[in-house]
Amino acid sequence: MLTVLAFGAGVQSTTLLYLSMDGHIPRFDHVIFADTGEEPAEVYAHLDRVRRRCADTEQPFHVVSHSHLGDDLLNGPSPKYNIPASAPKTTRWTRSAENSGTY
After folding, report:
1. Which of 16, 25, 41, 54 is an S-S bond match for 61, by CB 3.0 to 4.6 Å?
2. What is the per-residue burial (b if ≥16 Cβ within 10 Å, else e) of 17-54?
3. Overall domain count for the chain
4. Per the domain annotation, does 73 fall within a domain?
5. Strand partners of residue 64
6. Minimal CA–CA distance to 87: which of 101, 75, 100?
7. Is residue 15 included in any domain, yes or no?
8. Is residue 97 a part of any domain in this protein?
9. Does some domain include residue 9?
């Protein structure tokens, strides 16, 4: 059986990953992070540390990304994959001038 960790870069998934790499729970066959392209800088810094540790322990780690979620929210659904990104109608999305990844 293939075991895959959906890694969100938060406390729970990081703890599970580190427990598995340290031998406290069974190792994952693969770890996958779905990158929205809109994470805060701190998340990407954490992700870099985790990826280095995975490389050191030969833990397969994959990052998948299609586009920037915020761009999809502002510009409409993705024409390539026809996957709509939506927000509640009451949500007002604007791009911050200081940080293009903040809405």
Report:
1. 54
2. beebbeeeeebbeebebebeebbeeebeeebeebeeeb
3. 1
4. no
5. 34
6. 75
7. yes
8. no
9. yes
Q: Is the pLDDT assigned to residue 68 strictly greater than 70?
A: no
Judge contact between 54 and 31, C-beta under 8 A.
Answer: yes
CA 27/CA 42 separation, integer angstroms? 26
Query: What CA–CA distance (Å, rounded) separates 99 from 103?
Result: 9
Q: Report helix, strand or coil for 80.
A: coil
Range of 57's domain?
4-65
Instruction: Say yes or no to pLDDT of 100 above 60.
Output: no
Instruction: Give the chain's length.
Output: 103
In the chain, the amino acid numbered 2 is L
Is residue 7 within 8 Å of residue 28, measured between CB atoms?
Answer: no
Cα separation of 37 and 65, whole Å? 8
Which tokens sit at 39? 């994470």
φ and ψ of 34, to 5 deg: -90, 105
| pLDDT computed for residue 36 by the predictor | 84
**Token couple for 18:** 């580190």
